[in-house]
Amino acid sequence: MSTVAVLGAGKIGEALLSGLLHSGRSADELLFTERHPDRAAELTERYGVAGVEVTEAAKRADVLVVAVKPQDIDPVLDELAPLVGPDSLVVSMCAGLPTSLYERRLPEGTPVVRVMPNTPMLVNEAMSAISPGRHATDRHVRVVEELLSAVGKVVVVPESQQDAVTALSGSGPAYFFYLVEAMIDAGILLGLPRAVAEQLIVQSAVGAAKMLAESSQHPVLLREAVTSPAGTTINGIRELEKHGVRAAMLDAIEAARDRSVELGKAHED
């Protein structure tokens, strides 16, 4: 499969284009769609990739990566339906939308692979989970794995787990940003300049993430290594437990999962 078209060149769509180019793919093998002409011209100038209409993308591309907002999916599918089929590969990056929606709206036999990426794709550190639809083969899965490996790590999961993935890793960066924001505010409360508090917390987050990624130890053991008896950290942990931070995180991720389910149901017949 030689030509890839990204339908919807928002932040995630642009990040994928950038990652594919940096991985060695030629700009001539890529296309994108963008409904705002100024934005399209900007991306073409930046990357050398042609901006086209959805219908042209469907005619020219072997792989169509749908990266529009879930609420904008209907007109895109209407345009794709007459032009795609078993020889195309449709890759959905739309949160909450099941492969069955595409299979129902597109010609019989059209292979669809569902993907839940996240915004660290912007720095080539995405975590993407992929699930094949009824007509997608192992070959189609390998194609999508190769594409997304250019911008981070990839895991294959059953589609029944995609709503949970959306809540966990899809929304996950926002939870980390929220926590970092709160910790910076705490540093300011304790008298540190904002710039110093931000540097302290951001680098601590980077270091902690690297330890998690490179260590074979469970997060509990890594936390315990920082938590001395009667020390400062255990007093802070006690307050987190007292205020139910762990329970709040569980509730937040469950609520995000429920919203992902709702997005899928909104497009059921």
UniProtKB/TrEMBL annotation:
> Which family does the record claim for this protein?
Belongs to the pyrroline-5-carboxylate reductase family.
> Where do the Pyrroline-5-carboxylate reductase dimerisation domain residues begin and end?
159-263
Pathway listed for it is: Amino-acid biosynthesis; L-proline biosynthesis; L-proline from L-glutamate 5-semialdehyde: step 1/1
The Pyrroline-5-carboxylate reductase catalytic N-terminal domain extends over 3-96
Any one GO molecular function term? pyrroline-5-carboxylate reductase activity
Q: What is this protein called?
A: Pyrroline-5-carboxylate reductase
Function field: Catalyzes the reduction of 1-pyrroline-5-carboxylate (PCA) to L-proline.
Presence of keyword Oxidoreductase: yes
Against Pfam families, the record matches this protein to: F420_oxidored, P5CR_dimer
Stored PANTHER family: PYRROLINE-5-CARBOXYLATE REDUCTASE, PYRROLINE-5-CARBOXYLATE REDUCTASE 3
Any keyword Transmembrane?
no
Cell compartment(s), UniProt = Cytoplasm
Give the superkingdom in one word. Bacteria
Lineage of origin:
Bacteria, Bacillati, Actinomycetota, Actinomycetes, Pseudonocardiales
Q: What species does this protein belong to?
A: Prauserella oleivorans
